[in-house]
Amino acid sequence: MDTEIKTKNGWARLLPLAVILAAAIGGAWALGDYLSFEALRDNREMLIGYRDANYLTTVIVFMCVYVVITGFSLPGATIATLTGGFLFGTFPGVLFNVGAATMGATLVFLAARWGLGERLSAKMDASEGRIKAIKAGIDENQWSMLFIIRLVPLVPFFVANLIPALVGVSLWRYVVSTFVGIIPGGLVYTSVGAGLGEVFARGETPNLGIIFEPHVLLPILGLAGLALLPVVLKLIRGKEAI
User: Fold this and answer.
1) CA gap 124, 134 in Å, rounded
2) Neighbours of 214 (CB within 10 A)
3) What are the boundaries of each domain within the chain?
């Protein structure tokens, strides 16, 4: 009887993750044509008109849609960020984008931690050898690791949402590091979105690879290097102590 109850509880814990996965698969199939650059281009006048007539409502609806996109890992997060810049400018658009992305990412984090994270973290703490050493290293340098996975653009957003939940990161550390860590990339894409009016007028498409251009990527990597600095200093001090 106890085993049956534990099994049911286990499946119930996995339900939020299963819903997110199902929504991501269904969304990729059903929403691809709606959350696209072409859809934004074709509906830009209607969106601007609605924003001008209902600014606060537009902000609320936009952020709710963005939270749903990131919280359920739907396609179109980049387009949503561009839309935030297009509708609200670089500022306050970047605040709306980063705030909504953080809320959506937190939903993924909570679902993963409730379903797998707490038990997996406890097992890693109770383990021996290399696994426990890896967990201890992550715990010792949580702030640095959290900022690095957010700053480096090569780490997929969904993966960066899951990893902290699986290693026992606290909620407030996750929220703070997510909000601050995604500001550089969010600022880049929001500013691209703010210039979409001119891009549309020329009949062109935005350069979404701009974040990998040296003048943008190098400063972001510099911030990642600063985040990694405490880890390097600890390693150096540890060798000196030996």
Assistant:
1) 9
2) 8
3) 2-241
